[in-house]
Amino acid sequence: MNEFELIRHYFTRPVSHTRLGVGDDAAIFSPRQGYELHVSVDMLVAGRHFFPDVDPYKLGHKTLAVNLSDMAAMGATPKWVLLAAALPTVNQDWVADFARGFFALADRYQVDVIGGDTTRGPLTLSVTIIGETPHGCALRRDQAQVGDDIWLSGTVGCAAIGLTYRQQQLSLTPAEQHHALMALEQPEPRVALGQALLSCAHAAIDVSDGLLADLGHILQRSGGLGATLWWDQIPVNPLWQHASWFKPEWALAGGDDYELCFTAPATARQAIVDIAHRVGVPVSRIGQVEAAHTGTVVLDTHGQPMPIERTGFDHFATS
Ligand code: ADP
Ligand code: MG
């Protein structure tokens, strides 16, 4: 099977809101009137972002999910994606499973795959995603205000536990394995929540590098603000919340959770609870934005600041 047969067979599907999709030198599409476009790109490298032997269906899912999550964090509706893939060899079963996982999620979110690039090389996957929001309405990182509540969707720490388990540094029961590996390998992007928050949140980010690090981006981009978080309000899966082996660091600084962290005025509390109920995603109010102090303070159950050694994941960190 040559490159063009591979693209035609595995990566070409009918499109629903695109004038010209895969097959020409470029795709053609138009945004809806009154909307503006969001575009972002993400890269997943084997051995760095995923284990090379991960189930290809799950890898297909995650490759798209992490990009959908970026759109969710902006409150954008994802519409179009391009997929660039470097593959060491063409194993048709592997490619077929990867494509099934990728398109299952694309279909669920009605995202058109409109192009890409395919080459031989060390296993690397890169998706460019394009979404839209009504003009001037996007959720950005730089709009948090002093006094805002800080909210978090879902739970944090599951993916870090999945990673630690995969690294054979932790043993888990079958039920624990299921939750931890689902979070690590098949995260569910919070697209509907992000869109619904357009009406009431001030700032948002998706938690990909660790809660404290990602909240730190909001605080820094919003003019250098501070925050207080309450440890007992940070949502952790009850499966291991009280386990002796559970490390708070997994929840506070573990990467790959793809939950939304957002800030909103106190007047929006009821609206946010209603939205969470409507979209079926739990949310927790975990803290408050404050005028500048030294970054984020996490208070333990006695109101004492917890020692924080690590805030998140940095690919270029030297330690
Ligand atoms: P060109 O030589 O002009 O760069 P390519 O041969 O790379 O074109 O690609 C042919 C067509 O297939 C283009 O429309 C491109 O966007 C699309 N394409 C290539 N690889 C992929 C892929 N992995 N997924 C989806 N579309 C792809
Ligand atoms: Mg090309």
Task: Tell me briefly what this model is.
With 319 residues, this protein is of the alpha+beta class. It is 32% helix and 23% strand. The N and C termini lie far apart (44 Å).
Which helices and strands, and how do they pair?
Blueprint: H1 3-11, E1 35-45, H2 56-74, E2 77-87, H3 92-108, E3 112-120, E4 124-134, E5 149-153, H4 158-166, H5 174-185, H6 191-197, E6 203-206, H7 211-221, E7 226-230, H8 248-253, E8 260-264, H9 269-279, E9 283-290, E10 296-299
Parallel strand pairs: 2-3, 7-10
Antiparallel strand pairs: 1-4, 2-4, 5-8, 5-9, 6-8, 7-9
Helix pairs in contact: 2-3, 2-6, 4-5, 6-9
Bound molecules: adenosine-5'-diphosphate (ADP) and magnesium ion.
Adenosine-5'-diphosphate binds at residues 7, 11, 22-25, 83, 85, 113, 115-118.
Describe the model:
The protein is α+β, with helices and mostly antiparallel strands. The chain starts with a helix and ends in a 20-residue tail after the last strand. The protein has helices spanning 3-11, 56-74, 92-108, 158-166, 174-185, 191-197, 211-221, 248-253, 269-279, and strands at 35-45, 77-87, 112-120, 124-134, 149-153, 203-206, 226-230, 260-264, 283-290, 296-299. The protein is globular, with a radius of gyration of 20 Å. The strands form two sheets. Strands 6-8-5-9-7-10 form a six-stranded mixed beta sheet, sandwiched between helices. It contains nine helices and ten strands. It is 32% helix and 23% strand. Strand 2 (77-87), helix 3 (92-108) and strand 3 form a beta-alpha-beta unit. The mean pLDDT is 95. It binds adenosine-5'-diphosphate and magnesium ion. Adenosine-5'-diphosphate binds at residues 7, 11, 22-25, 83, 85, 113, 115-118.
